[in-house]
Amino acid sequence: MASPRRIELIILGNELLLGARTNEHLSYLASELGSYGLSIARNFVIQDDASEIGKVFKDAWKRSNILITTGGLGPTSNDNTREAIAKALGRKLKFDEDTRISIEERLSQTGMTLTEKVMKQCYYPEGFTLLPNRIGTAPGLLYREGNKTLIMLPGPTAELKSIFEKQAIPHLKKSNFLVHEKNSILVRTAGVAESIIEEHLTPIFEKHPNIKVGFCSKHNLVDIRLSPKRPGLSSKTLKKTAETCKQALGNHFVCFGATPLAEVVIQMLAERKKTIAVAESCTGGLLANAFTDVPGASQVFAGGDICYNNDAKIELLDVPESLLLQHGSVSAEVALAMVTGVAERFCSDYALSSTGFAGPGGGTKENPVGTVYLGFYSPLGAWSRKIHFMGDRPTVKQHAVNAALDWVRRELLEEPSLSGQPSIEEWALAEILK
Amino acid sequence: MASPRRIELIILGNELLLGARTNEHLSYLASELGSYGLSIARNFVIQDDASEIGKVFKDAWKRSNILITTGGLGPTSNDNTREAIAKALGRKLKFDEDTRISIEERLSQTGMTLTEKVMKQCYYPEGFTLLPNRIGTAPGLLYREGNKTLIMLPGPTAELKSIFEKQAIPHLKKSNFLVHEKNSILVRTAGVAESIIEEHLTPIFEKHPNIKVGFCSKHNLVDIRLSPKRPGLSSKTLKKTAETCKQALGNHFVCFGATPLAEVVIQMLAERKKTIAVAESCTGGLLANAFTDVPGASQVFAGGDICYNNDAKIELLDVPESLLLQHGSVSAEVALAMVTGVAERFCSDYALSSTGFAGPGGGTKENPVGTVYLGFYSPLGAWSRKIHFMGDRPTVKQHAVNAALDWVRRELLEEPSLSGQPSIEEWALAEILK
After folding, report:
1. For A66-112, what is each residue's pLDDT tens digit?
2. Is the domain of B268 the same as that of B252?
3. For a FRET experiment, which of A326, A420, B150, B183 has its CA 20 to 30 Å from that of B419?
């Protein structure tokens, strides 16, 4: 009945079934497996109920070669996956002392003690392999039976990802479930609509009917994922096609892989040994946060001022009060004064500023909600630019941040760097070394 | 076999199974049904394949009272839901002239013509009711058999929502599936682990076996959703229980409903006519961003400094250089100097600061990665606190932000406000007026 390498996924998700969260586990695992040319045949989201878990598990286990479960391994009374699956397979639960020690160590760092509830996590069904959890408390579990593999992952996303990538994937490789190396390339672009990108690239894709092309656009970025339609397409062909896309995209091309835009900008600045500062009004810290999300940002990111009212703009950024009175705080003139002020304050080589109406309140006839003025400062001079974004408050903020980052990126492309952009071969090498 | 009002959901989702999108249909439908006291027992995400659809549909139809499908009703060759379900139920497809006219009208507006592919959408299984689509082309479908109802919705989210709310919900009400009005309450807590909250509240829930309790914890917040186990529980009982939870939780209680922590803090400060400023090192703008995500934040949020290196801490926040040299930038002393400096700079009543090692690099034996010192400034004085968080860089940052916000919240609770916290009745009224 089972077709070769059929994968099913069971997600324990009272929270999902109540609508309290979106299903991030599915999108993460699907794209990870997808990069090996594998796809998930069926995904269940079920309630944290022992009998429900047992029923769904038994059926899915019959059909699948790889069965993955997520969630339900933690300490609360809703965490029943371990127990329900042990019962379905007729396995006893055994206690693991190493897990107890590791949980105790972890808890002691946060000043908590080991309660009886937490101890649940030290048990595992007989014959299963424990996959230690380096981030949280509940370990993952792995079980093999003939040509079938069961992988049980904890629910918290960071723990799930860490265990899946560092432990489950190597297991699947060793047992020949993943016969091909990761073979997918993501081409990231910024600043251009998906439909225009698609028009640009269609002639390339028409020449390669074996390549599966997926578009995904979000907040001013468009990602194009190239992968084999079925396992077997050479990675050389895929790389060559990705390189052709890059050439066709020109300055719209950001990078291969899903590197955040801020990280790309930080890399470009680091190569040039330059620094950047930010002065934020309407983006309110989101731009600084994008920079500081990048490990090692401090080398390049000099700092920022969040100047949410006129007093702060005057006091901290030396924006002349007359400018604020004459043009209003949401204006090209103020964006320019802010960006110059912050560059001087932090002695940075480059700077960015934002001032606008993120909504839902505010806005004028001339500058309706969604209007943002960005400022850009470089050793060559300072400029400002007016852009209008659609969407709610967080969307306008995120769009403005990406537009600001893309502005520096494009300007830096015009300036010489020490090393230049990495080629697809250098990128692929770096991926392997990761 | 079927329990009363069992609901299952089948989502046709090649894109979801490839990881190209997240499953928004589930979260939308689950929270809509949840607000009527109903929950989805099981959700399937399956591939757009006629035999797969047939198999999953037959099983689910046996078990369910309400079965909902989304997707697969459109014009492409992957759209097989209508045909597969007609076959599974042994129904012939019939042509609907009204649908043809309405699709033709819609297409003519966009300058397109009716092709044979598009005509697929004019067919419906005999005995089914068409649910006209006012936004797109593919109509939804509804079918009743004994105590069972099948609802088939198109995939595009806006069309799905419109048909579900305006047509499916009234049908379900008329046929007595939704006998009660919307009825669920979310109780938000902060600063305490899910397992401790559960221990606190279990005695309350044991007295109310008719109330369904769902926990959802994320970044130092734990949400508890109370809803009726089955329709019929009075909203009065639900409110009374929520109020009892609030009392039992004491200062751990944040609010009824999913108001962001920063918004709760802003409301409390606004009631007291006070302002707040932030000095961020390791949270790098995320704390300022949490405040500025709240519409109208400017009346309370004075501004912030992102001081990512020592120079900025000395220049902008008047942190004494000797302190940095003696104690290091990640220390209680520096957190304190930062928070005092920023309160003075922005002339704010309150202030928060952060300095720590968010990882993955950095950290010392005494202050390993995940260590964060928070500073708190108020008219009564200034304090600092050391906390250790687990997780990757963005997780540590988010945890630190929520811990900082929760700190101000708890301190403000001890100070008199003008209006006090809203009662559950006031909250319920505000919800209705929304």
Report:
1. 999 999 998 877 889 999 999 999 999 999 999 999 888 887 776 66
2. no
3. B183
The per-residue pLDDT for A56 is 96
Is A430 a member of any domain? Answer: no
Same domain assignment for residues A216 and A130: no
ipTM for the predicted complex comes to 0.78
In-domain check, residue A223: yes
> Three-class SS of residue B150?
strand
Do A364 and A230 fall into the same domain?
no
Instruction: Tell which of B308, B387, B388 to mutate to test the A interface (max A CBs under 10 Å).
Output: B308
Question: Has residue B417 got a pLDDT over 70?
Answer: no
pLDDT at A107: 78
* Domain containing residue B204: CATH number: 3.30.70.2860
Instruction: Tell me phi and psi for residue B129, to 5 degrees.
Output: -100, 135
Q: Does the residue B432 lie in any domain?
A: no
- Report strand pairing: A253-256 vs A185-190: antiparallel
Domain termination residue (choose one: A174, A201, A226)? A174
Give the three-class secondary structure for A328: coil
Q: Is the pLDDT of residue B429 over 70?
A: no
Note the pLDDT tens digit of each residue in A252-261.
999 998 899 9
Interchain contact B130–A (C-beta under 8 A):
no
Contact predicate A20/A53, CB 8 Å: no
B396 located within any domain? yes
Give residue-wise pLDDT tens across range A165-192: 999 999 988 877 776 667 788 899 999 8
For residue A366, the enclosing domain spans 261-413
Mean model confidence pLDDT for chain A: 89
**Do B66 and B162 reside in the same domain of the chain?**
yes
Residue B389, pLDDT above cutoff 50: yes
Give buried/exposed letters for A167-180 (b at 16+ CB in 10 A, else e): bbbebbeeeebbee
Measuring CA to CA, how many Å separate A419 from each of A250, A272, B160, B343? 18, 9, 50, 43
How many residues does this entry show for chain A?
Answer: 434
Residues of B in contact with A394 (CB under 8 A): 293
Q: Cβ of A315 under 8 Å from any chain B Cβ?
A: yes
CATH no. for residue A306?
Answer: 3.90.950.20
- Tell me what pLDDT residue A434 has: 54
The count of structural domains within chain B is 3
What is the rounded CA–CA span in Å between residue A61 and residue A89? Answer: 10
Q: Are strands B148-153 and B140-145 parallel, antiparallel or unpaired?
A: antiparallel
State which of A133, A153, A174 marks the end of a domain.
A174
Residue in A15, A110, A292 closest to B388 by CB:
A110
User: Is B27 within 8 Å of A14 when comparing Cβ atoms?
Assistant: no
Question: Does residue B248 share a domain with residue B297?
Answer: no
Same domain, B13 and B136: yes
Identify which of B30, B193, B286 has the shortest CB distance to residue A289: B286
